[in-house]
Design a protein that fits this description.
Number of helices: 7
Number of strands: 11
Helix content: 25-40%
Largest sheet: 7 strands, mixed
Distance between the termini: 43 Å
Shape: globular
Order of helices and strands: HEHEHEHEHEHEEEEHEE
Radius of gyration: 17 Å
Structural class: alpha/beta
């Protein structure tokens, strides 16, 4: 985003506000942007991986990236009911969409990797969700853009509609999107990974103030 666009955003904020990840307009925006997005390059994380459970994977953005180096990879996205309903037309024998973690794990069989990028902080109970993901016994879990704090706290986050989803999409009118976000207790986050050890961690360059982790089964 250039300087002029940033100034315009500060001076002319949209008046219309939509709320929550179930909003049809937000879902449609992410869906269309994902269809139009054409990633390129390698992704070391998926090398040697055959099956991935992608928690909060939208309309399959990360699958489009993963299949570049791994065209035969099997990918199960766990998402909101609204996103699953919209994205199912993109399903193939290698990409499927599910509302529940158990459904995704059953379809995959053996889960090599649980992947989640900027999603766990938007569920109602992040710690219980992490425990549920660990119960499918993946070989590893990779987390990106996780907001951690000394203690858990909730806040209202606001973004621009056009900033949701990958790439760009010309919108007829800009809107604000509001949703609840949790700053997760760092200690609780790590302790929720029972039977796993921290293999990698550090600041996530994709979003200021967030962390990225890789856990491996003990």
């Amino acid at each position: 985003m250039d300087f002029v666009q940033r100034v315009k955003r500060k001076l002319f904020r949209p008046r219309e506000v939509i709320e929550g990840y179930e909003n049809p307009e937000l879902v449609e925006t992410i869906f269309l942007k994902t269809i139009n997005y054409e990633p390129s390059g390698n992704w070391p994380l998926v090398m040697g991986v055959n099956t991935v459970l992608d928690f909060g994977g939208g309309a399959g953005l990360h699958y489009k990236l993963a299949r570049q180096p791994r065209p035969d990879i099997r990918w199960a996205v766990v998402e909101t009911p609204a996103m699953v309903h919209r994205a199912r037309e993109l399903a193939t024998d290698r990409l499927m969409f599910f509302e529940r973690i158990e459904q995704a794990a059953n379809w995959l069989g053996i889960v090599d990797l649980v992947h989640s990028n900027g999603a766990i902080q938007y569920v109602r109970d992040p710690i219980e969700t992490i425990r549920s993901l660990c119960l499918v016994r993946p070989a590893a879990l990779a987390w990106h853009r996780v907001p951690l704090s000394d203690e858990s706290r909730r806040e209202m986050q606001t973004s621009y509609l056009s900033d949701n989803g990958p790439g760009t999409l010309r919108a007829s009118s800009e809107k604000l999107v509001k949703y609840d976000r949790t700053w997760i207790s760092e200690q609780a986050f790590i302790e929720a990974h029972k039977s796993y050890r921290v293999a990698e961690r550090g600041p996530d360059p994709a979003e200021r103030g967030t962390q990225q982790f890789k856990f491996e089964r003990c």
